[in-house]
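Subject: GntR family transcriptional regulator

B.,
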Amino acid sequence: MYIDPGPDKALNQRGGTLMVVRKANASVELTFADVVGRASGGYKTVGQMAYDIIRECIITGVLAPGEHLRQEELAERIGVSRIPIRTALMQLESEGLVSFHPHKGAVVRTLTVEQVREIYELRVLLETYALRKSIARMTSARAARLRELGTALDEPHISASLVDERVAFYRELYDAGENPTTVEIIEDLRNSVGRYLLGLRVDHGAGGHRELARLASRGDADTAAAHLRDHLEHVSRRIIEVLSSEEAEADPVTPKRRRKKPAPA
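Prediction pasted inline below.
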């Protein structure tokens, strides 16, 4: 049975999985109950629903990096048995969003500074490629939509309320290039670091997303690609600064003890 999601929800098909996408007028911070409430319809199986709820909670930071994912608790909060929860967690492990540890169970995967750096280096390569392909096929209607989305994103702090808008912006930016495999890889990379963006203060410089949309709309591929590269590298540096600080606090360097001089004989 297919349940209509209602007027306040939209459904997006990706890889055979339905993903609830909040419409652009939503502007509140998310809670676990919010995500469950939004995903209450539009699913053929409870397993699909459980996967999407947990995945969205991880991507939006409702479930924080390193947080324990207790199957009994998740099953109770979502309203399903443990079996679909276990299946969902295993699928999320294959996507790099969840880790399983002996005697500890599942946790939201954490990233190291080196992993963040590598992810953003890949993003620069893939996203500048996708951008150039998309600009070559950009229509006036897509350009107008891109400019509209870009204007709404240029806030100094990245918040959970704008996660769906960011997804919509980059899909609009890259989908015209008709490279679905590349776009899917880009989305997976973005999702793997998305939770580290929440609350991050970002200097958008000369317009940020708005300027990127303007450059793409007028067909300036070289300048747009350079702008995108600068933006991604800036965000990467900010995440690394925060992670480096957290790692230093979690593992402070213990000062070496001075060796005592032997007492005179």
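The radius of gyration is 21 Å.

T.
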